[in-house]
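Reminder to self: keep the SMILES exactly as supplied, no canonicalising. Ligand is NAP.
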Amino acid sequence: MPVSPAARRPPTSTGSEGRPVRAGTVAVLGATGKTGSAVAAAALHAGLAVRGTTRHPGQADGPAGVEWHQADALTGDGLTHALTGAEAAYLIVPNVHPAEVEMVDLVAQAATEAGVDRVVYHSVADPHDARMAHHLRKARAETVLRGVRPEAVVLRPCAYQQNLLGAALAGRLEVPYRVSAPFSLVDLGDIAEVAVAALSGQLEPGSTHVLGGPEELTVEDLARTATRVLGRPVTASSITIEQWRSGPGARTQGCALTDLLAMFEAYDQTGFTVDPTPLTHLLGRPPTTWTQLLSKETS
Ligand SMILES: NC(=O)c1ccc[n+]([C@@H]2O[C@H](COP(=O)([O-])OP(=O)(O)OC[C@H]3O[C@@H](n4cnc5c(N)ncnc54)[C@H](OP(=O)(O)O)[C@@H]3O)[C@@H](O)[C@H]2O)c1
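Structure tokens returned for the bound complex:
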């Protein structure tokens, strides 16, 4: 669903504060992060002007062409200023952040104060899964957001293919849950494409969209496919929680640690699968497969 210039709204005259609103300008919160930089890059590619927010504009590392603004969604510092003049805002909260609900509330209020026409919130698939506190926070944040901005569009992605891409390219998938658990991993590029459509006003106001990848694959399947596509061995193995805590998770503490351990337990029990049909409809084509993503890396 490429965003054609014709699909964009015509230039708007003023925001709610009477300040000029630049047509085709969108704000992406957390544009330095994994998700935000993908959304910002896709928006730029679609011809939109992109304001990226970061707490540290002097050190901001993100797609070339982003206009950086300082903003902190925890304190509210700089938010309204960063959003004023944008037609649409993409709202991303850092992963497993304990204040997700409060941050979403603050950004939604600031977007309204700034006269932003459209708000799009990056939630998660299965936000009501009570096994994971960070999913429940996203469910609460969706409710709070709808209280402030009933017309907001909510995207609920499954886990990304990109989470395991680097490890696959390095030849070793190691996860702290069983390697036979199934996942509908989704390409972050596909998510960004839908995000741009939402920012451009192409999705129904007030709608919610589950974004899942086209296949249910276990980590063993991912490794087998990567071995075939990359033409070199890629292994899959489970590590214990203790090994994860003394290795990749060594710097994770507090609420984030509790959240991630609960997530690993849920993944171990059931994996994380969702219906790929809504994403297929939104894209107007089948979502990107793991094979296609890996093939791009080899071409
Ligand atoms: N990874 C997945 O598979 C997946 C799946 C579904 C949903 N999600 C959700 O996607 C979201 C983003 O995850 P991610 O991995 O892309 O995040 P990330 O790479 O860790 O990026 C987080 C961003 O948040 C910004 N940030 C941190 N503290 C902030 C604050 N106080 N105020 C404003 N911005 C702040 C950071 O910007 P600065 O440091 O530059 O300020 C950074 O750009 C999370 O909510 C996650 O739950 C992820």
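Points to follow up:
The chain has a mean pLDDT of 93.
DSSP finds eleven helices and eleven strands in the chain.
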